[in-house]
Write a structure and sequence with these properties.
The chain has 416 residues and is an alpha/beta fold. It has 13 helices and twelve strands. Helix 7 crosses helix 13.
């Protein structure tokens, strides 16, 4: 009887959704070396979830450091912060309230909507329905299965021509908790099919090129972020010899793998994986891009948050061979984005603009020969972080469309 009761309690614990009552998100502002050391010591002694940068090793002077601290540690952290002399703000006073506030209470429809966050089953149904509703513009395929056996649906958008066309590859949701990313890919597909024939830019683009859209890269992680832990980032793969689950898919590509800005610790949020492409989701995407490398002319990967438009390199400080052109295109694209709502983006190579990070998909694609390789970090700059309210989905996607269309049109006119 006691054993059954114990097993029952374990089962309940495993099924419970993580709650964040009283958890806080702090923004720390290190100004001197001792502040940097303090943050690294804080991370080593307490369970701290780094929102920006991705881990403690990337902390340097004069960058904002956003950390999520559990309620059980907040009093202690306040004392430690005051003793250290570091400047700080509380960005989110109660994380659970922010999680709850992310959803627009006026929209509880179970069906798919472009201005709300949709769970995986809703997105999967949408993938099938939008394909069947647009047979002359969309074809659907599957890149393969995830670690937990879910399908990685890929949409090819373009007017059929009977011949192979140059292409652009866009993916969303490499990191599970970045929900605005997933929302953008759905918005992009909707805009592409609904404006084809009326918008000359989109019409020309889809007549002359194909656009591959992977609406959800890290499907297992996304499901987990809905059902168990809203702050989950990694995949859900399991490693022998470790109780910690998952790897960071954007540290798992063959681009300076597991060097700068990545961790070999399986429990880290920036764990690079057991080996290059150890994560099946990464391998599936990499295989597809390799197989189609002759036609894929641009690679766009959508993340959040920070309002950045980045390009190679992140795994090293050296400039890309095409640096001047990549910067020029990024600056023009960010200006197009800014024209709608005044949202300001910072542009530049990843390593020098924010921080070094190895194993990223954009660097890998660029080194493979995909010249126009960009990473978007969407809204915002920290007020809500990963918990951007649904009320901001529409403006975020509208402005991002302008930047993506600019890049796509540029690529269309500058094929190589």
């Amino acid at each position: 009887m006691k054993l059954l009761l114990l097993l029952g309690l374990v089962a309940v614990a495993l099924c419970e959704t993580t709650r964040f009552e009283g958890d806080k998100v702090f923004r720390l502002k290190p100004a001197i070396d001792s502040h940097v050391s303090f943050i690294k010591e804080l991370a080593s002694s307490l369970k701290v979830d780094f929102w920006s940068p991705d881990n403690a090793e990337l902390v340097t002077i004069d960058i904002d450091v956003d950390i999520h601290v559990p309620a059980s540690h907040t009093d202690m952290v306040f004392v430690m912060l005051d003793q250290s002399g570091i400047s700080y703000d509380v960005l989110i006073d109660d994380l659970q309230a922010a999680v709850d506030g992310q959803m627009d209470s006026s929209m509880h429809a179970r069906s798919h909507a472009y201005t709300k966050y949709n769970n995986w089953s809703t997105i999967e149904d949408w993938v099938i329905s939008i394909t069947s509703a647009n047979p002359t513009l969309i074809t659907r395929s599957t890149l393969g299965k995830t670690f937990e056996g879910r399908s990685m649906h890929l949409l090819k958008i373009g007017k059929g021509s009977g011949s192979t066309k140059p292409a652009i590859f866009i993916d969303c949701g490499i990191h599970a908790r970045e929900w605005i990313s997933h929302a953008f890919c759905q918005w992009f597909v909707k805009e592409a099919v609904s404006t084809y024939g009326s918008d000359p830019v989109m019409t020309s683009l889809l007549d002359e090129m194909d656009i591959f859209v992977l609406p959800v890269f890290n499907v297992d992680g996304y499901v987990y972020s809905w059902t168990k832990d809203r702050m989950w980032r990694k995949t859900r793969s399991k490693k022998s010899g470790s109780s910690c689950v998952g790897a960071d898919p954007n540290r798992n590509f063959d681009a300076g793998w597991c060097t700068l800005g990545a961790s070999s610790n399986p429990c880290s949020d920036t764990y690079c994986g057991a080996s290059v492409e150890s994560e099946i989701e990464v391998k599936n995407v990499a295989n597809f891009i390799r197989q189609n490398r002759s036609i894929i002319k641009a690679y766009l990967t959508i993340h959040s948050y920070s309002q950045l438009l980045l390009f190679p390199y992140s795994y090293k400080y050296g400039l890309a061979a095409d640096h001047s052109e990549l910067l020029r295109v990024a600056e023009a694209a960010s200006q197009a984005l800014r024209s709608l709502y005044g949202t300001v983006y910072t542009t530049g190579p990843g390593a020098t603009t924010i921080y070094p990070a190895s194993g990223g998909s954009d660097d890998w694609a660029y080194d493979l020969g995909v010249k126009y390789s960009y990473t978007f970090e969407l809204r915002d700059t920290g007020r809500y972080g990963f918990l951007l309210p649904e009320s901001q989905i529409k403006p975020t996607c509208e402005e991002t469309m302008l930047a993506v269309k600019y890049i796509a049109s540029y690529v269309q006119k500058n094929l190589y």
